[in-house]
Amino acid sequence: MKTYLVTGGAGFIGSNFVLYMLRRYDDVRIINLDKLTYAGNLENLREVEGNPRYTFVQGDICDQEAIKTLFEGNEIDYVVNFAAESHVDRSIANPQVFVETNVLGTVNLLNAAKNAWQIGDDEYREGCKFLQVSTDEVYGSLGAEGYFMETTPLDPHSPYSSSKASADLFVKAYYDTYRFPVNITRCSNNYGPYQFPEKLIPLMIHNTLQHKELPVYGDGMQVRDWLYVEDHCKAIDMVIRNGVTGEVYNVGGHNERPNIAIVKTILSYVKEHVDPSVGEGLIKHVEDRKGHDRRYGIDPEKIRRDLGWFPETCFEVGIEKTIRWYLTHKEWMERVTSGQYQEYYRAMYAGK
Ligand code: NAD
Ligand code: DAU
Predict the structure, then answer these.
(1) Which of 58, 126, 229, 255 has the fewest CB atoms nearer than 10 Å to its CB?
(2) CB 310 within 8 A of CB 203
(3) Left (φ > 0), alpha (ψ -120 to 50) or beta: where does 220 sit?
(4) H or E stretch including 16?
(5) Which segments of 181-284 does DSSP mark as H helices, in order?
(6) How high is the pLDDT of residue 188?
């Protein structure tokens, strides 16, 4: 039995990872540590509540004592660090908390794991690993050609991506300095169930179903490389099991699409299958995001070649599954878009 400390496991990708691992393996135990910010939701984890191999702990990755206690009370084999402030627009409005959680929180976790696993000078308990879940945004923005490779220099632009790049550098420093066993994964944009409707795809699904305006930043020709969330979970699992210590692995499925095309895909699916009264008249081009990265595109050749990873869900299937999921989880959407979300939405989109 291997014990995983998953942080941020009540958020979008983290909860999908917890469900994926517990469904797939009988010899995995998961401790999920999550602060339950606006983005964390225990409803995502209903399926595993009561599973004897699953424990939820509400806590902050910045809390040194709490993390130390967790390591003392459990023989943890792997740390998978999803916990983060993840939304670029929020980072533009308020960078401070991004430094606290994404940078200081990551260093705090690294320290606690290092103290718990160290058995000698630069020697650690056999088989332990710290996996940092990072993002393609640390590489910056691409022009019309080329892809991000693991060797592409870091060139983050937003406060969010700068905080993630800083965290990556600390993870690398722990490997370079202490030979502490780490991996970093850098994935492209995820979509799928349980994604908070501040992000493009669930926001557009929600607004379309509500006949609300669809706010497309600038000309809508910015390109993102979309991956179904379960394929990201599979990649993380493979890197923990077989990734070479100290290595970075890019994760992406060569599925680049301009934002406006994503919005139109959602609109046409809803029009055809759900509500014939919706149309492109809902699209509103609004003021662009500050410092908006134009294009992301991952080269996933290393993880394909070295670990045999490949994406299983193509975009046509994944987007349909995702829209269907939101249609069959209307109460989930209603709950997460009530209260605080209304204030966020007004502040973010008012005057745009
Ligand atoms: P999310 O915002 O949906 O979830 C983040 C989770 O972290 C929430 O459950 C939140 O409560 C928790 N959290 C925040 N601060 C915390 C703290 N101080 N201590 C403990 N828990 C805390 O994010 P997501 O989209 O699921 O992203 C997860 C990770 O994957 C992030 O590290 C993000 O940078 C990375 N990532 C995301 C994407 C994407 O497309 N969403 C792509 C590549 C990488
Ligand atoms: O690339 C991986 C990253 O993808 C992750 O590291 C981040 O955590 C995740 O939030 C995501 O960042 P993006 O900024 O690419 O995702 P977002 O869904 O916010 O926006 C996707 C694109 O859509 C981006 O070009 C901005 C645009 N957009 C977004 C929103 C919310 C709009 O045009 N209108 C909107 O209302």
Answers:
(1) 126
(2) no
(3) left
(4) helix 12-24
(5) 200-209, 229-242, 259-273
(6) 98
What is the model's pLDDT at position 351? Answer: 75
- Ligand 1 centre distance from Cα of residue 7 (Å): 9
CATH numbers and ranges of domains, the chain = 2-287+295-349 (3.40.50.720)
**pTM (two decimals):** 0.98
Question: pLDDT tens-digit profile of 103-141?
Answer: 999 999 999 999 999 999 999 999 999 999 999 999 999
Q: Where are the beta strands (DSSP E) in 21-148?
A: 28-34, 54-58, 78-81, 118-120, 123-124, 129-135
Determine the distance separating the centroid of ligand 2 and the alpha carbon of 89, expressed in angstroms. Answer: 8
Q: Hey, whose CA ends up nearest to atom 11 of ligand 2?
A: 189
Contact 352, 288 (CB under 8 A): no
| Nearest-angstrom CA–CA distance, 25 and 96 | 38
Nearest ligand to residue 18 Cα: 1
Compute the distance between CA of residue 203 and CA of residue 88 in angstroms, rounded to an integer.
Answer: 14
Model pLDDT for residues 22-44, shown as the tens digit of each residue:
999 999 999 999 999 999 999 99
Which band of pLDDT confidence, cut at 50, 70 and 90, is reported for residue 350? confident
| Closest C-alpha among 51, 164, 175 to residue 113 | 175
